[in-house]
Amino acid sequence: MKIVIIGVGLIGGSFAKDVKKLHPEAEIIGVDKSDVHLNEALELQIIDRKGDYTDLETADMVYVGIPVNVLVTELPKILDASGDETVVMDAGSTKRLICEQVSDHPKRRNFMACHPIAGTEFSGPAAAFEGLYTGKTMIICEVEKTAFKLQEKALAIFQDIGMRIRYMNPEAHDKHIAYVSHLSHISSFMLGKTVIEKEKNERDIFDMAGSGFESTVRLAKSSPDMWTPIFEQNKDNVVETLEEYIQNLTTFKQLILDNDFENVHLEMSNTNKIKQILKGIPLTKK
Amino acid sequence: MKIVIIGVGLIGGSFAKDVKKLHPEAEIIGVDKSDVHLNEALELQIIDRKGDYTDLETADMVYVGIPVNVLVTELPKILDASGDETVVMDAGSTKRLICEQVSDHPKRRNFMACHPIAGTEFSGPAAAFEGLYTGKTMIICEVEKTAFKLQEKALAIFQDIGMRIRYMNPEAHDKHIAYVSHLSHISSFMLGKTVIEKEKNERDIFDMAGSGFESTVRLAKSSPDMWTPIFEQNKDNVVETLEEYIQNLTTFKQLILDNDFENVHLEMSNTNKIKQILKGIPLTKK
């Protein structure tokens, strides 16, 4: 089996590690615009050798883990270079624009639009680890547009890795993911900003902040290179979630100002049911 | 040594466990308005026996871990009942009102105003565990108002548990803690609310939400009984932090609407320095 990983960072690198564990005989070829990352991936034995798009013609499987703005321009070229038996899977956090971009591509049937609900706030080859995908959800969009034989090949790998599969259309994906992922990142970034602006003395933040703050602000460590194009491609949905979030915060603030602490309590009690919801979310164990 | 724990939940119960480990000979007496909690604490061997305020006269040390609205009314009564050698320490998340409330109390010198930066989103005796306080910060307010001998007794215990001590005035405490703790809780509760309102189908939240959402929304599991009076007592500071947070979110939303993704990127890059700040925060390991 010949597998090409385009983008050898956290997402691509972790996929390579899981596949190598399942198929030790597979040849894993890395493609990345950063030669530093490629060398790092080689050293960490994430890939067996460096490659380029000429390797795609004979690849069984191509997994693309690159920022979504680059994905939009690279995906057509990747499909151009792919062979008839090659299945190309992306891992982009947005799906509408990406699916549109290749909807009329002559090799559309070689593409499977994917979004693994897996990741950490870190990036680069050194952040990759075995098991990132285990127990996580793989969202697949427009599955009917992928050739049946290639669907089978991709699904077999996802199942062997231990992923749960969910099918969805790209518009629904982008709308829901804005709430459960994109909004969390913005709320965390802006929390970090608000605290940093106020607490000029960083020593005070250490001393007074507990694990609650650490948890809530964790996503503010995420890569701006990765997240800026996500917000750009999912602009309408992200703005909608932000407006609702700001509205909820404003209402809560007004309840406090009005000394209406009965309703402050009620707002929190109603939200406590998140406990039950969170029980269903698989955690990342490294 | 005779130690009375008033409020045998996460905070009081964990303190009892740490003290018992250091001083196995100490008698730990539990006082709580909930007899269910007291029985649970007995069963879990967090306390040696149940007690009441008549035990305070001969106690060496009293640790009060109850919601701040109850603390404000109970603390004067607790001091009334305490003996000359008793040091009474609270664990309230607000400090200004509590210090004001007892500022003219004839036994003010028996009181040490404390706020341990330690906790989890869980509550009750079953949530208590050994080691919650180790490596964490204990903030002490108006230390000069506590009798020197009693200061020494309290500090010795905190140091033996492995806590870092920081001194602060009550106003500064309430102002800073609004940023690094109270705001995190509200941002998390309102994130949970926004997502729950939108995602009527809870199954969709499980399937699409990853560990990032889980982390950001974790504090929305916290107890409304505990947090409502905190927001009430720290109203002015909490409203101020909320206004700044809402302003930052509104600015970020406007940058997206204006397609100013260069500044969207810059906002996130500037906030990435939270990485360095977070390195100094001790995590809760259970």
UniProtKB/TrEMBL annotation, chains A, B:
Documented EC number(s): 1.3.1.12
Entry keywords, A to Z: Oxidoreductase
Record flagged with keyword Zinc-finger: no
GO molecular function: NAD+ binding; prephenate dehydrogenase (NAD+) activity; prephenate dehydrogenase (NADP+) activity
Domain Prephenate/arogenate dehydrogenase residue range list: 1-286
Pfam families membership: PDH_C (PF20463), PDH_N (PF02153)
InterPro entries in the record: 6-PGluconate_DH-like_C_sf (IPR008927), NAD(P)-bd_dom_sf (IPR036291), PDH_C (IPR046825), PDH_N (IPR046826), Preph/Arog_dehydrog (IPR050812), Prephen_DH (IPR003099)
GO BP of this protein: tyrosine biosynthetic process
NCBIfam families from the UniProt entry: PRK08507.1
The protein's name: Prephenate dehydrogenase
Naturally occurring in which organism (per UniProt): Allomuricauda ruestringensis (strain DSM 13258 / CIP 107369 / LMG 19739 / B1)
